[in-house]
Design a protein that fits this description.
By secondary structure, the protein is α+β, with helices and mostly antiparallel strands. The protein contains 7 helices and 26 strands.
Length: 445
């Protein structure tokens, strides 16, 4: 079996016992920080304060610079408008207050020892629910729930971080849908909303932590499945990507062997290419992208050949990302999407039925008209439909037709992995075979 050998990195770079980070650590500009809100924040005005916690530790080379759980302070930086297409779709559903484009900026970082550091990040949007997707079930029978660990694998007790990676329950999704049907409702960021904010200026004044502790994914027990955590450098979309396009990711957590030898330092770059792409098409066929990492470039500039495959990623729950057994990323569609078209078609058919009372007088059928109106215009439709049975039927038919079109005929969703998307990449040769022209054992000498 061909295995990836990165042990030479530890020899060529730095012995594990030697100090590799000076006492004054600086996190360079351009590094993304992940924050989760501690409490609900109503969207009312620019400048409103907010507080959160650092979800993932920040590393410099082989040491922790900022621990997860550090307090962060920020504010609402921008409240934008609503795109015309989103507003039109919202009005069709009876929603006259669609979500606006709101962004936050973070200004200060408070470390666990109480020290306070100034911070300046880019404007960032909030993600209500972040989902961890992995295809590791083919290797392991058990899968840890997201509430037990963070992206860096460390156990956590911070409730803001736990909420950020908790998949919403069906009751919670139903509640959100019902609230969305109201014609007017206030916008807010829920507790646990996640922000990926990029440092605009270097973060200095930090003290170097100890060497990063060994994780359950490091070591030589299964070197062919050794994994590194990285972040995507540039956005990848199935709508614009082409086969052969370059793909790059930056390692954001150092990887050590079982003996605590440094294998892959933070800041190393994974270089690869797109090997398969399929854009979204009509009849709700979603997009797909597959890429492979061929090289790893260490901070010293040395380059080594690898085989790196996507094993996991973190994305917005609404993106419905899925990974197949080969690491290809697709935009999946939930099976529950078929429920509403069936209900809307049944309601629109029943809207033509007219009941009569004992005297032969047509019944007003307030409930039936309300159902017909709700199918097309939500809560507003339940009121408008009371004026006429013909109008109620028209609203129901329009809503059913739009639902059927968007579910079965319209173009599917493209797969989009935005810049700074967290990735889990397995390093090694898949299937135990090296690619032609590559030796099974490589070093940097």
């Amino acid at each position: 079996m061909v295995l990836l050998t990165l042990g030479a990195v530890a020899v060529a770079q730095v012995p594990s016992a030697a100090p590799t980070v000076p006492p004054g650590v600086t996190v360079p500009a351009g590094v993304p920080l992940r924050f989760a809100l501690e409490q609900r924040v109503p969207i009312k005005r620019v400048g409103a304060p907010l507080w959160g916690r650092l979800v993932e530790s920040v590393y410099v080379f082989d040491r922790m610079a900022v621990p997860a759980g550090s307090l962060v302070e920020g504010h609402i930086a921008e409240i934008g408008g609503v795109p015309a297409r989103r507003r039109f779709n919202a009005i069709l559903s009876g929603n006259f207050t669609p979500s606006r484009d709101v962004r936050a900026q973070f200004d200060a970082l408070v470390l666990p020892d109480g020290s306070r550091l100034p911070l300046r990040t880019s404007f960032s949007r909030g993600t209500a629910h972040t989902m961890r997707v992995s295809n590791r079930l083919k290797f392991r029978k058990e899968r840890q729930p997201a509430s037990q660990c963070l992206g860096d694998g460390a156990p956590v007790e911070d409730q803001a971080a736990v909420r950020a990676f908790t998949v919403p329950s069906q009751m919670s999704q139903l509640k959100s849908t019902l609230i969305g049907m109201l014609p007017y409702h206030r916008q807010s960021w829920a507790a646990g909303t996640l922000f990926d904010s990029v440092l605009q200026e270097p973060l200095s004044g930090l003290r170097a932590g100890p060497l990063e502790a060994r994780t359950r994914n490091s070591g030589a027990a299964q070197p062919e499945f050794q994994e590194v955590r990285a972040r995507l450098v540039r956005t990848i979309s199935s709508a614009t990507a082409r086969r052969g396009n370059p793909v790059e990711a930056v390692v954001n957590r150092p990887l050590f062997s079982a003996g605590q030898d440094l294998l892959v330092p933070e800041g190393s770059r994974l270089l690869g290419e797109v090997v398969e792409v399929r854009p979204a098409r009509r009849f709700h066929r979603n997009g797909k992208v597959s890429f492979v990492f061929r090289q790893i470039q260490l901070p010293s500039g040395r380059v080594q050949g690898i085989q790196g495959y996507l094993e996991g990623a973190e994305t917005d729950f609404e993106a419905h990302l899925a990974l197949d057994s080969e690491g290809a990323a697709t935009a999946s569609s939930p099976k529950t999407r078929f429920i509403f078209p069936v209900i809307s078609a049944a309601v629109s058919a029943l809207s033509f039925h007219q009941d009569y009372n004992a005297k032969g007088v047509p019944d007003q059928d307030f409930g039936g008209r309300a159902e017909s109106g709700a199918i097309g215009l939500g809560l507003v439709g339940t009121v408008v439909a009371q004026t006429s049975r013909i109008l109620a039927s028209s609203i129901a038919i329009t809503g059913a037709a739009f639902s059927v079109y968007s579910t079965f005929i319209a173009r599917g969703e493209d797969l989009v992995l935005t810049a700074n998307t967290p990735l889990v990449v397995s390093l090694g040769a898949r299937g135990g075979e090296a690619k032609p022209g590559q030796s099974g054992r490589q070093d940097l000498h």
